[in-house]
Write a structure and sequence with these properties.
- The structure is a single chain.
- The protein is α+β, with helices and mostly antiparallel strands.
- It is built from 2 helices and 3 strands; from the N terminus they run ββαβα.
- The protein has a 3-stranded antiparallel β-sheet with strand order 2-1-3.
- A hairpin with a 5-residue loop joins strand 1 and strand 2.
- It is elongated, with a radius of gyration of 15 Å.
- It binds zinc ion (2 copies).
- One zinc ion binds next to strand 2 and helix 1.
Length: 103
């Protein structure tokens, strides 16, 4: 099992290719851009309530046998938020002042 490298921000649909420096993920691999995490989500995952970290960049080159972008390709399935804007706003309001390690 490898980390799913999802192709877009669930919030604004920005493309987040495997080498994107501004991709952020929660522990469930929910994927957003850094701008949405900072200015829209306030470090609260709309799906699980967890915080975010920078998504690591998978090497394009096969430095070790079997492990590279070619051998473990990124996901092509674009993911979009399934909840309403009102629901997400209330969820964020309830959680954002609690640090991720205490949620
Ligand atoms: Zn975004
Ligand atoms: Zn999440």
């Amino acid at each position: 099992m490898a980390l799913q490298l999802r192709p877009n921000c669930e919030y604004c649909d920005k493309d987040l290719p495997p080498n994107a420096g501004d991709a952020r993920i929660c522990s469930y691999e929910c994927t957003f851009c850094a701008d949405c995490v900072e200015t829209k989500l306030f470090n609260v995952c709309p799906n699980c309530g967890g915080g975010f970290v920078k998504r690591p960049i998978r090497p394009a080159q096969e430095w070790r046998p079997g492990v590279s972008l070619e051998k473990r390709p990124p996901s092509e399935k674009r993911v979009h938020l399934s909840r309403s804007a009102e629901d997400i706003a209330a969820h964020i309001e309830r959680i954002k002042d609690i640090p991720p390690e205490r949620r």
